[in-house]
């Protein structure tokens, strides 16, 4: 029965007392009886006369038996009899039984009403287990060894008979309500919306859930059970998601949008918990395995395909590469024998399972093969999808026609609804939320603005919604305005994260960079923002820098200066070096970076103390600076102190890509008139010879030559 206590305490979000599992081994005789009497009195005073929402018959039966135990203990205490060993053992078992009973009764008293309904059979089983333990204790109890009155003996014998005959009791009233709850879910499963009058009767009249606040408490409790769900506990996560969606719909249908507890003033609202970037790209960033990312776009591959050289790319990226007229492999430079794209189903399967293991939504492109769709991530049930669609319709109606307070609440709920599942994001956008959210981006209310821009961020994670956001007139400009002048830090940071999400589409990178003030605001956030703001800004700037036409804008907006300054900032240095490595590919970019006084020193510092990927990006940036920046830039790099030793270290201990770049950079130095001064006698020639093949292959530079941590859209609260 200890498992029942643990089960109960977990569901109540409280740790059970150690006394629930340890008998008082050092007590005997009168002291043991007094301890038992105190425990039983505490339990009796807490629950006697208290009406529980469910399990009333089972709880009353258990409390009556405990009351009788109190009477027996009082008689034994008054008699002054010496307790035999068997009796002491029985009373110690009774001690454990009492604590388990208290935990179970406390659980029934404090748990969510809906959760108790769903667990009706399981909780009834726990009460039955306690009855069986009472029966066992009474069977073993040495009643004949005590001088008890006939009345007490008769009551003990009667209790023995009742306990032996006791069967599992499932309250018919509770079971009827449970089945009714499931029937509402079945209605949504069939594509029908339940009758509002029946929903009102069930939630308000029968369950006593009479306002929006208590309904929200029920939702939060169910969501916590999903987070802490054990695989063998019924109902399943999919079904629980359906009940959460159903209850959320009823909350707005039955109780509307006016809530006294919602503070609409600046700084008075309760900030949601933050998780991974799909939880609104919050403070934690998840790095995808390098093999799961496309060498061209650096994004997580959604539809990996193999080309004739045996290399794997994301279908959209390699298709665009071929459409631009290229007939070589982007990674190896080999000529393509043919242009057929063969789906890499094995890799895609690994990516899907990795996403599922880390709670990352995997949204395959519409063009993906039907065979690939046999590996979906855990998807919501149809009932949950239909209930969320109905909820989205109510929320968007309030966004369109509600009061200012109702609009703020609706934006917050859309933000929450869009945090997980592409089905939710799709149905919200299809129902027309984006134009109304755009209107709230310019709201003078800080909470409304923050919720609307974060909702926009969550919606943008779904690829199809990116085009709706970009095509909505004035929407991009409004997001940039929030980035520049947002009322709260979180609003500005989430606006930057939204631009990062939108810039995952190659065709949008130029539009975003050309939007007035966008790159300048990202550069300012990189210089002055919080650690999370800097992360959002640098990843957005990196994405924008992968488009060659954005180089001049990055220079004019002082983004290059901000990126150079970020080379010494922990957490963003790696991405900053990657962005600089892309910018210096063009002569104008190389000139701008070369003119930055701390650029070379910052990259050298990254080679010395950076992460393996940071070192790769730093040596790649220095190599491209020499190639594109002319003699003056090459001389500045060559004269950098300690570079020779760092290059030698990379040639022997760096990653494969870092070794290739280091070998190429050393070959550049060999052609300089000062090469012997800087590298003579250091053994670099040996390293170059050993890496000559790698150096020869490094004749071109792609986005794949820059390695950064990919921040996955993975949504918050």
From TrEMBL:
Pathway(s) annotated for this protein in UniProt: Protein modification; protein ubiquitination
Query: Per its UniProt entry, what is the enzyme's top EC class, as one word?
Result: transferase
Looking at the record, the residues that make up the U-box domain are 287-361
InterPro entries hit by this protein: ARM-like (IPR011989), ARM-type_fold (IPR016024), ARM_PUB (IPR058678), Armadillo (IPR000225), PUB12-19-like_N (IPR057623), RING-Ubox_PUB (IPR045210), Ubox_domain (IPR003613), Znf_RING/FYVE/PHD (IPR013083)
Catalytic activity, reaction form: S-ubiquitinyl-[E2 ubiquitin-conjugating enzyme]-L-cysteine + [acceptor protein]-L-lysine = [E2 ubiquitin-conjugating enzyme]-L-cysteine + N(6)-ubiquitinyl-[acceptor protein]-L-lysine
| Record keywords, A-Z | Repeat, Transferase, Ubl conjugation pathway
Gene Ontology process terms (BP): protein ubiquitination
Q: What is its EC number?
A: 2.3.2.27
UniProt keyword Transferase present: yes
Q: What is this protein called?
A: RING-type E3 ubiquitin transferase
């Amino acid at each position: 029965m200890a498992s029942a206590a643990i089960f109960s305490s977990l569901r109540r979000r409280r740790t059970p007392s150690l006394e629930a599992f340890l008998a008082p081994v050092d007590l005997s005789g009168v002291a043991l009886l007094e301890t038992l009497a105190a425990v039983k009195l505490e339990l009796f005073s807490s629950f006697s006369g208290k009406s529980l929402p469910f399990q009333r018959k089972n709880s009353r039966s258990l409390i009556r038996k405990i009351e009788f135990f109190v009477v027996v203990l009082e008689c034994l205490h008054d008699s002054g009899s010496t307790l035999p060993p068997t009796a002491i053992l029985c009373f110690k078992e009774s001690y454990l039984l009492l604590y388990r009973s208290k935990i179970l009764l406390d659980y029934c008293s404090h748990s969510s009403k809906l959760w108790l309904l769903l667990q009706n059979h399981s909780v009834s089983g726990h009460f039955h287990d306690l009855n069986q333990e009472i029966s066992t204790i009474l069977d073993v109890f040495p009643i004949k060894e005590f001088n008890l009155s006939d009345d007490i003996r008769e009551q003990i014998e009667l209790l023995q008979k009742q306990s032996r005959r006791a069967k599992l009791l499932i309250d018919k009233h509770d079971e009827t309500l449970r089945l009714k709850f499931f029937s509402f879910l079945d209605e949504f499963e069939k594509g029908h919306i339940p009758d509002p009058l029946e929903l009102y009767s069930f939630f308000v009249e029968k369950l006593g859930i009479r306002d929006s606040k208590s309904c929200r408490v029920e939702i939060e409790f169910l969501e916590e059970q999903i987070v802490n769900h054990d695989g063998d506990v019924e109902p399943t996560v999919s079904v629980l998601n359906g009940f959460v969606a159903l209850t959320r719909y009823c909350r707005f249908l039955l109780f509307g949008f006016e809530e006294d507890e919602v503070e609409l003033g600046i700084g008075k609202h309760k900030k949601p918990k933050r998780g991974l970037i799909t939880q609104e790209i919050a403070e934690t960033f998840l790095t995808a395995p390098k093999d799961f990312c496309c060498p061209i776009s650096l994004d997580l591959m959604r539809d990996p395909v193999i080309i004739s050289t045996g290399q794997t790319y994301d279908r959209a990226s390699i298709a665009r590469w071929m459409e631009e007229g290229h007939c070589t492999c982007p990674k190896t430079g080999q000529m393509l024998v043919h242009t057929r794209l063969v789906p890499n189903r094995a890799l895609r399967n690994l990516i899907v399972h990795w996403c599922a293991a880390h709670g990352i939504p995997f949204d395959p492109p519409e063009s993906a093969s039907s065979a690939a769709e046999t590996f979906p991530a855990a998807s919501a049930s149809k009932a949950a999808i239909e209930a969320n669609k109905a909820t989205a319709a109510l929320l968007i109606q309030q966004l369109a026609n509600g009061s200012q307070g109702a609009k703020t609440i609706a934006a917050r709920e859309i933000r929450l609804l869009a945090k997980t599942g592409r089905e939710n994001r799709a149905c919200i956008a299809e129902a027309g939320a984006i134009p109304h959210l755009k209107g709230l981006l310019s709201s003078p209310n800080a909470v409304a603005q923050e919720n609307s821009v974060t909702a926009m961020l969550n919606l943008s994670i779904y690829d199809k919604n990116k085009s709706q956001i970009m095509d909505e007139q004035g929407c991009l400009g409004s997001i940039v305005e929030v980035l520049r002048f947002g009322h709260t830090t979180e609003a500005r940071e989430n606006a930057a994260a939204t631009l990062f999400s939108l810039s995952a589409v190659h065709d949008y990178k130029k539009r975003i960079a050309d939007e007035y003030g966008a790159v300048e605001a990202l550069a300012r956030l990189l210089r002055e923002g919080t650690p999370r703001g800097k992360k959002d800004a640098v990843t957005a700037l990196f994405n924008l820098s992968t488009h060659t036409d954005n180089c001049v804008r990055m220079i004019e907006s002082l983004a290059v200066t901000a990126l150079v300054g970020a080379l010494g900032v922990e957490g963003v240095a790696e991405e900053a070096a990657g962005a600089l490595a892309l910018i210096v590919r063009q002569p104008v970019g190389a000139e701008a970076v070369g003119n930055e006084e701390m650029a070379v020193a910052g990259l050298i510092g990254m080679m010395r103390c950076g992460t393996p990927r940071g070192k790769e990006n730093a040596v790649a940036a220095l190599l491209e600076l020499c190639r594109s920046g002319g003699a003056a830039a090459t001389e500045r790099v060559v004269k950098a102190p300690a570079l020779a030793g760092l290059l030698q270290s990379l040639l022997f201990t760096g990653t494969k890509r870092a070794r290739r770049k280091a070998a190429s950079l050393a070959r550049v130095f060999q052609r300089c008139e000062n090469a012997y001064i800087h590298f003579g006698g250091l053994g670099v020639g040996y390293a170059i010879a050993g890496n000559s093949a790698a150096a020869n292959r490094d004749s071109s530079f792609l986005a794949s030559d820059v390695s950064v941590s990919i921040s996955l859209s993975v949504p918050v609260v």
